[in-house]
Design a protein that fits this description.
homodimer; 6-stranded mixed beta sheet
């Protein structure tokens, strides 16, 4: 019998769950037994892991007997229902949903930024939202050097962040439009093909979306600085993989663009791609499938003193979700 | 012989030129004679205007004899070469390129904002860039009430802004990708299909693009306030028609989102679409073909005192170029 951990993946048939299983294999995570979990409607499916085909099991209250580590990618409702059961079974859970992220005793972890928080867990460690992860990986080393006071971020988010159905919807809408048929709208409130929709997640009472407030709240929690003021506008664009972000920061201490580049070149998990005269800057299509966060277009924000503008891109499914979760588990 | 003006349109076969001829007809502009001008390679083409088919003529130094009004949509080099000739022929030119926009004696006009400048012209009136026009139409009434001190804008710009070849390139790249062929790249430095490219126009010495600096410089000139500080990030997205902009402003006088909505509901050329709980906000696909600038997602910028965030969308070919030029001519 192989040594290692019994690992459950809830939501294993989704975009992130599928990538998760791939990454567990790629990184040779010490898996003794893999328990692929999903809802009833995926019961005819199997997943491939290290040459084996493992039938998907239904996620229920009996799923976590003897499970050491549980990854949750099955949506907030499933997390709320089954994570407490998993924890009672002695399982350590890494949750990708927003269900427990802002709770005081749940570490919200991006390994490059705050791995020291992992050991404080009481059974649950939360994975931040994809748009937060890539931004804090880049901003944390700047914050440590110059103290960030304010962040304005506008996002260009890929449809894979919503799931397989959204990717299919973009594909189908493009096909319909190219064949002079009326595109069908179901996952998003409006046509996403050849459009930009400033609406991700539900609207909350201050006219922001939940996604915009998550970026603000999670960033403050991860950077451990409640005084940073953050305004996000989150926008869905017709891109399959890779979130892009236009980020303007203001710092207490002035940093030149060269100083920022130097700090980021030494930063873990960051690749500086910043040679605009040779058309080099981060792009969603190139970040797709990569593990790092890419940053470029680093320049003085000419509208404010002590300001820096930049462009941050990462694979929202890998670093934005599955990879970050595996990195947390590796550190456990 | 009909009364009216002899009107030349240089660059008549391009995206904006085509729309221009359509708008001259739609708005019943008093055209006595239309002179469609283009380069040698369009010489086999004709344009349709009010039921007539008019052969395209080659743009040269003899094109402007007796021409009252000349619209230039043929690129900066053509503007630099032929506008001085047109002006010497007594023609009043409305130029859509950036060739003369920042010159002191050339009014840079958005009729809703600064039509009073038109009469100061010395033969040339400049049409601002598309991304500037839609922003100043919305920001001018706010600036008048509360004095804008700073603007941070990130754009989501349509490929039609680049021209017909760029629209064809997006179409072909999508077809290639859906047929498992390598997409061809020629107009843009990178694949635009399913991507977001933070690079519009050339890079200039401060690591901004010319497009980003145009937004800053033109906005200050049109709003007649050199003290407004502006930082733009301009991004091309796979959208055919309609530029979208995430705009964060800071004002001297505090305005609530409700006050901003009220100001904008009375503003010329502006339509407020701001009911997020019913999924109502401006969208590129709905703005296409419309004359107005649409604004929504109006909310407090929670990262600063006296800040407002909003989402501005307009048809970059109509209000962003052709329509604005016709509106200027109507006021002449």
């Amino acid at each position: 019998m192989p040594s290692g951990y019994k690992v459950a993946v809830a939501g294993v048939t989704g975009v992130v769950g599928t990538e998760m299983v791939k990454i567990l294999g790629e990184r040779d995570f010490p898996v003794k037994e893999l328990v692929p979990l999903a809802s009833q409607r995926s019961m005819d499916k199997s997943i491939e892991f290290k040459g084996d085909s493992i039938p998907v099991q239904v996620l229920n209250e009996h799923s976590f007997k003897g499970v050491d580590i549980g990854f949750f990618f099955a949506g907030e409702a499933m997390s709320r229902e089954f994570i407490p059961i998993a924890v009672r079974n002695g399982c350590v859970v890494i949750d990708n949903t927003s269900a427990f992220r802002m709770e005081g005793d749940v570490p919200l972890v991006v390994p490059e930024v705050n791995s020291h928080r992992i050991k404080e867990h009481k059974g649950i460690i939360a994975n931040p939202s994809c748009s937060t992860i890539q931004m804090v990986v880049v901003l944390n080393p700047i914050h440590k050097q110059a103290r960030i006071r304010r962040i304005v971020v506008s996002t260009y988010q890929a449809v894979s962040g919503t799931g397989i159905k959204a990717m299919d919807e973009l594909t189908e809408q493009v096909r319909d439009l190219f064949n002079f048929r009326e595109p069908k709208i179901s996952v998003y409130p409006h046509q996403i093909a050849f459009n930009a929709i400033p609406h991700i997640d539900e609207f909350v009472e201050n006219a922001y979306t939940a996604e915009e407030m998550k970026i603000a709240d999670e960033t403050r929690k991860i950077l451990e600085d409640d005084s940073i003021r953050i305004c996000a506008t989150t926008v869905r664009v017709p891109v399959f993989y890779g979130h892009s972000e236009a980020v303007n920061i203001e710092t207490e201490k002035r940093l030149s663009p060269d100083e920022v580049r130097k700090i980021l070149m030494d930063a873990p998990g960051v690749i500086v791609e910043d040679d605009p005269l040779h058309n080099k800057y981060p792009l969603a299509i190139y970040a797709a499938g990569k593990d790092e966060c890419f940053v470029g277009r680093i320049r003085e924000d000419i509208s404010v003193d002590n300001g820096i503008a930049m462009w941050i891109v990462s694979d929202n499914i890998r670093k934005g979700a599955a990879l970050n979760a595996v990195q947390i588990a590796e550190l456990l």
